[in-house]
Amino acid sequence: MKIGFIGYGSMADLLTRQFLAHADVAPKDFIIYTRSENEKLQEIHELFPEITIAKTSLEVFEQAEHIFVCVLPLAVLPVLLENKAAFSSEKHIISIAAGVSVDDLKKVATNVQFSKLIPSLTTSVGIGTSLVNHDTAVSTQNQAWLSTALGTFSSVQEVAEENIDLASDLTSSSPGFIAAIFEQFVQAAVRKSNLTEAEVFQMISNSLAGTSMLLAEKGYTFESLIKRVATKGGITAEGVSLSEAKLPAFFDELLQRTEAKYDDHHAEIKDQIEELL
Questions:
Q1: CB 60: neighbour CB atoms within 10 A?
Q2: How far apart are alpha carbons 25 and 94 in whole angstroms?
Q3: What is the mean pLDDT of each run of 10 residues along the chain (277 residues)?
Q4: Cβ distance 80 to 109 under 8 Å?
Q5: How many other CB atoms sit within 10 Å of the CB of residue 105?
Q6: Is the pTM of this model over 0.85?
C-alpha cells in the first residue's frame, strides 16, 4: 500500500511525520509530488530517503491507494481534473482544503472514493482533533484505515458537512484564536506592570499548559474548573464575571466573521465549478 501526497506544505509535513512516527507505515510507502521543492520536502527526504519524490502528480494518483490532496482550495479541482485518467473505484482521495466539500469533489468524478480531512496543528504534539467527512462511496475499509492512522496521534471525529466549517473553527483554527486572545492578555499585563513581556509570556504559557492538562488528564470541564479556582467573592471570580459579561458578544462575532469567510470560499468554489465543468 502506498500513501500519496499532492502538495507538501506544513500540514502535509505534519501528517507525514506523524504517520511515520505512530502509524503502521514505512518511508517506502510514501510518494510525494509538489510543483516546487521546498525546505520541508528536502528535509523529510533527507531524513527518509526511501520516500519516493514523484516527477508528476499523475505518478502519485497512479501508484498510491490513499492520496492526500494538500493544495490551496482553488487548486484542488484543477489537480483532480488533470489526473482523472488515473481514477478508479479503488482510489481513496482525501482533501484537506477548507471550503471544498465532498459534493464539490464529486463534481469532478464519481468513480473514486472522496473523503475530507481537517487536520489541526495541535496533533503534532499528540493531542487534538482530526475532523473527517466521507462520501457514501468510501468503503468501510478505507474509512477504518484513515481513522486508525489518524487515531494514532489525534482524536478522530466524523462530522457532517453542514457542521464542518464551525467544527474547523473549534479545532483547526482555535489554536490561533487562543494565541491571539492570550497575546492580548500578555500585552495588558505588560502595560499594567514592570514585568517584561518574556516574564509574562512564561507565566501565562505555563498556566495554559497546566490548564490543558487539567482538562485532558484530570477530567475537569470548563465549568468545574471555574468552580475549583474562582472562590465566591474573590479575585478570580471578578475576572470570571467580566468574561461572562463581555466575551459572549466577542465569540458570537468571531463565529459570524468566520462563517462569512467560509461563505466566500464556498462561493469561489461554486464559481470555479461552473467555469471548469
A1: 25
A2: 17
A3: 96 97 95 91 96 97 98 97 96 96 95 97 95 97 98 97 97 97 98 98 97 93 96 94 97 98 96 93
A4: yes
A5: 23
A6: yes
